[in-house]
Amino acid sequence: xxxxxxxxxxxxxxxxxxxxxxxxxxxxxxxxxxxxxxxxxxxxxxxxxxxxxxxxxxxxxxxxxxxxxxxxxxxxxxxxxxxxxxxxxxxxxxxxxxxxxxxxxxxxxxxxxxxxxxxxxxxxxxxxxxxxxxxxxxxxxxxxxxxxxxxxxxxxxxxxxxxxxxxxxxxxxxxxxxxxxxxxxxxxxxxxxxxxxxxxxxxxxx
Length: 206
Known about the structure:
By secondary structure, this protein is mainly β. The chain contains one helix and ten strands, in the order ββββββββαββ. Strands 1, 2, 3, 4, 5, 6, 7, 8, 9 and 10 form a ten-stranded antiparallel beta sheet that branches.
């Protein structure tokens, strides 16, 4: 087991751990990574959390490996500021602006040695990704001196002068594949025959 702490400017903190264990035909591997940053501006934090775990069983001609992975992140930023704000750019012009993601994956991989030089292998997996993207005040500023700024924005941008964009979606995908391999010699020649099938379904997205 080992841990690796790190740091940096903007309140940056990061740590990693990679414990692992093996006992005969069983093996376990875990990895975690935590990243936090306060950011250089007001309300400009970011964080990334990552977890990976694998459990394996290898005995004789049978191999089984289950892998789970999860990532959670929140990445914040700031828009451009007017030149007159350069002395206080860290205050930001509008906020918040961020992208938040939650993603998880499960994958079961297997391999079975059959008679002779034949092998049957494949995997089954499931993946879910949920993401939110929020941007504040997405339109350009109006031109100073406009008599009716509301009408000017509608004509120029097709919407209000200052508006927010809030995008959210979730994607779920499941799939499986199966492969048969035969490496038995064919007469005097080496032979490698493979046949595979794969199926993927998008369960739901919005």
